[in-house]
Design brief:
The protein is an alpha+beta fold and 69 residues long. It is built from 3 helices and 4 strands; from the N terminus they run ββααββα. The protein is globular.
Length: 69
């Protein structure tokens, strides 16, 4: 079985993988559940928006960066 997961990485200066959505710093079970559930770009951005992420000028930004934009 092949599963595909997509992530959003903040396009600001820490966009090197420090800040991503969905968050994978949780327990092994929650990370595995994220992978198994999968996502599409559309569903990923919709879920991220609910968590405070935003899209400005073609870039994706974490909640902390959205406060300063």
């Amino acid at each position: 079985m092949i599963r595909k997961i997509q992530f959003l990485f903040c396009d600001n200066e820490h966009g090197t993988g420090d800040v991503c959505f969905p968050d994978v710093s949780g327990t092994e079970d929650s990370v595995m559940r994220t992978i198994v559930n999968g996502n599409t770009a559309r569903s990923l951005r919709a879920a991220a928006k609910k968590e405070g992420w935003g899209r400005v000028g073609g870039g994706d930004y974490c909640p902390a960066c959205m406060e300063s934009i």
